[in-house]
């Protein structure tokens, strides 16, 4: 088993191909999941820069940032939004949302 989540192979492959086609240009890749040494998935964002043309570097530079907490918070917000929407769409009770207006 590799370290990259199987669902993320395609978009990482696209980003890597774009990187190879654009020497010297930083390419931001979509967040992707990798397996941590504790066997849990973590989310990383990366920037790839093709420096194969530079004889002093002769490689691909990749910078990674852990965005696991942000991705988990986004998922929690999405889950709560679905619950909230389901509550309003399936409620048999009348629901009225109001906003207090200030009088001048």
Task: Using brief descriptors, characterize the structure shown.
Beta-Lactamase; 3-stranded antiparallel beta sheet; 104 residues; 2 helices; alpha+beta; single chain
What does this structure look like?
The protein has 104 residues and is an alpha+beta fold. The protein contains two helices and three strands. It has one domain (6-90): Beta-Lactamase (2-Layer Sandwich). It has helices spanning 9-21, 68-90; strands spanning 27-35, 41-50, 60-66. Strands 1-2-3 form a three-stranded antiparallel sheet, sandwiched between helices. It is elongated, with a radius of gyration of 22 Å. It starts with 8 loop residues before the first helix and ends in a 14-residue tail after the last helix.
Please write out the topology:
Elements (H helix, E strand, L loop, with lengths): L8 H13 L5 E9 L5 E10 L9 E7 L1 H23 L14
Antiparallel strand pairs: 1-2, 2-3
Tell me the number of structural domains. Answer: 1
Which secondary-structure class do the elements indicate? alpha+beta
Average the pLDDT over all residues and give the rounded result: 89
State the shape: elongated
The gyration radius over C-alpha positions equals 22 Å
SSE run: HEEEH
Give the distance, in angstroms, between the N- and C-terminal Cα atoms. 66 Å
- Give helix % range: 25-40%
Question: How large is the count of helical segments?
Answer: 2
Top-tier CATH class: Alpha Beta
The strand count comes to 3
CATH architectural label: 2-Layer Sandwich
Oligomer: single chain
Our estimate of the beta-strand percent is 25-35%
How would you sum up the major sheet?
3 strands, antiparallel
CATH topology: Beta-Lactamase
Strand numbers in spatial order across the main sheet: 1-2-3
Uncertain runs with pLDDT below 50, 5 residues or more? none
């Amino acid at each position: 088993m590799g370290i990259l989540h199987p669902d993320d192979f395609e978009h990482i492959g696209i980003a890597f191909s774009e990187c190879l086609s654009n020497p010297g240009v930083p390419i931001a890749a979509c967040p992707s999941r990798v397996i941590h040494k504790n066997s849990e998935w973590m989310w990383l964002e990366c920037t790839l820069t093709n420096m194969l043309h530079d004889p002093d570097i002769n490689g691909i530079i990749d910078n990674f940032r852990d965005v696991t907490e942000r991705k988990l918070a986004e998922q929690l917000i999405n889950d709560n939004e679905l619950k909230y929407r389901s509550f309003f769409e399936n409620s048999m009770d009348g629901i009225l949302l109001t906003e207090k207006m200030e009088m001048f």
